[in-house]
Each structure stands twice: as structure tokens, then as C-alpha cells.
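Risk mitigation, structural track. In case the binding assays with adenosine-5'-diphosphate fail to produce interpretable data, a predicted complex structure has been prepared as a fallback.
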Amino acid sequence: MLLINDPADAPPGPKVVAIGSFDGLHLGHQHLLRQALREAKALHMPLLVYTFDPPSKVFMKGEGFLTDLTEKTELLRELGVEIALIVPFNETFAQRSKEDFLQDLRGLEAKEIYVGEDFRFGKGRAGGLEDLQSVAPTKILPLLELFESPVKSSRIRDLLREGKVEEVQPLLGRPYAARGIVVEGDKRGRTLGYPTANLEVAPGKVLPLGVFAVRARTAQGTYGGVANIGHRPTVDGHTLRFEVHLFDFRGDLYGEDMKVEFLKKIRDEKKFSTLEELKAQIERDAEEARRYLSQL
Ligand SMILES: Cc1cc2nc3c(=O)[nH]c(=O)nc-3n(C[C@H](O)[C@H](O)[C@H](O)COP(=O)(O)O)c2cc1C
Ligand SMILES: Nc1ncnc2c1ncn2[C@@H]1O[C@H](COP(=O)(O)OP(=O)(O)O)[C@@H](O)[C@H]1O
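Fallback model:
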């Protein structure tokens, strides 16, 4: 997959172009992109996905996002997209007129365009589907529905805010995941008998709160585990922490990249009166997570 950040860097030649923020690359996005890929193949053209980082709504409204740049790039590659144009969405981009955007599409030699039915573009969201039609025949895909309502990034964000990772899985077509770098914590975990890798994720990434059964992928291998995302009221923690204990792992993870898939919520975080009680609860959490993972 060719990854570019500026339309001017696209290789010449006719293309099918799919446009959108595609935050989460959820089932609706996958449906749209698969159709665009099929069409591109039939026309013997590459598919170029024109997307934004961060997603436009994240920049405009300060919402959290579901997939960071690395995750989105990886998912586009897995889908078989040939060219990913990921444009930084900043103040300058937000101020661009709809005409500028249409000019980009002409420059890209778009021969067919794919968008979702709610797509708008250009300063003040002035541009719409009729404008796209002036560049190339445009396929407008209705929002895919699952469990009687449209699959949308905002629906997934709302579910995650409630910690409902199991309900999110069918909407994404995969478990919700977060990736980050393992940083140092307070070195308390090891004294509890449960060392936990502290993950630093991209600011703005939506994180579900609570204790979860997880699968963690690291350069050293894939492990089952148990994660806590919260403020650690028992030790008077103030900042939000994302910690993962890996089962059957020993070693050093500091500085490593880790991807954590949230498979099942076990409970909400709570305040314990002693560290012994917290430790006993973590033991039960780990037991429950192991049981869950072993029957997958
Ligand atoms: C599975 C799991 C569940 C946890 N649940 C809670 C909890 O309910 N309340 C809480 O205050 N801290 C909870 N913690 C956080 C611990 O307080 C934390 O892991 C410990 O303080 C070690 O921190 P450190 O890695 O910064 O040394 C949990 C941690 C894990 C791994
Ligand atoms: N099974 C394990 N799960 C998670 N981290 C582990 C494990 N075994 C060893 N580690 C290492 O120990 C560190 C966590 O130990 P901990 O005492 O909780 O320290 P910190 O407070 O720095 O996170 C991890 O970052 C990792 O490098």
C-alpha cells in the first residue's frame, strides 16, 4: 500500500476514490471500501482512500477517536487498499473551500467516487454529493444497519464510554483495540504479585473504563491478560492509567509497542480499603479472565 499525505504526491492515472474520516474502520466502512475495491478491480484501476487525521469531527468538535493513525493505516492495508491518502486535518485544512477539495479530486483523476450518505466537505461543510457528481459518477452508500440501527462511529464511541466492549465487537467486525508504548508506573504492581505494563496511548484515543479480559500483542508474542483502565482510587491515583497484566509472561516490556484487544468487561473499578483486598480481587479478576479466554 502506498501511503501519502498530500494529493499532489499521488501517482498519475485514473482511480476509484473513496472519501471519509473512516474513524474505527467499522463494518459500515468495510462494506463501503469492499464495494469500492470490487469496482476498482473491475475497472482495472487502483482504489485511493482519501481520509483525514485526526478525523474531522475530532478536530472540529474535540471528540475522541477510535483508531489512531497507525491502526487506521494497518486496517486499510489489511483490506487491500492500494493507495491511502491521509491528509492532516488542521485549521488550514478546515478553512479550505469546497472548490479546493473538488480540485484535489480532479487532480487525483477520480473516475468514480464512493462516500457514505452523510458525507459533507469544505469550509462550513458547504460541499455535498451533488458537487462530487460534478467531478465523477458518485456512489452514495446508505449507512449499514446492524441490530436495527446504523453502524456509526458515534454509536461505537457511546458504547465504549459505557464499557460495553462485547457489544462493540460485531459493529467493528473485530474486538476494539488500543495500542501504545509501555512506560514506567509506580512499581507497585510487582509487589502485589501482579506486574502491570502501563500503556501510553495517543491523546484523544477513546478508552473504555473498568477491568477487562484482553489479548495483548507485543513483539515478544501474543498473551492473554487482564487490564484495568481507571484512576486507581485505592492508591489515590489521580491521572487515568491503562495497565495490563499478561498471563504466563515474565520479562521486560518497557519501551515496547503493545496492542491490547478488549474482549470482555469483568467489572467497574472500585476503591478498596486495603491493598490486600485489592490483591485478592485482582486474583479473582485474573481467574475470571483466564476462564473466559480459555473457552474462546
Ligand atoms: C486486573 C486489575 C484490576 C484492578 N482493579 C483496581 C480497582 O478496582 N481499584 C483500584 O484502585 N485499582 C485497581 N487496579 C490498579 C492497581 O491499583 C495497580 O495495578 C497497582 O497500583 C500497581 O500500579 P503500578 O503498575 O503503577 O505499580 C487494578 C489493576 C489490575 C491489573
Ligand atoms: N506478566 C507481566 N505482565 C505485565 N508486565 C510484566 C509482566 N512481567 C514482567 N513485566 C514487566 O514489569 C513491568 C511492570 O511492573 P510493575 O511493578 O507493575 O511496574 P510499573 O509500575 O513500572 O508498571 C512491565 O512494564 C513489564 O516490563
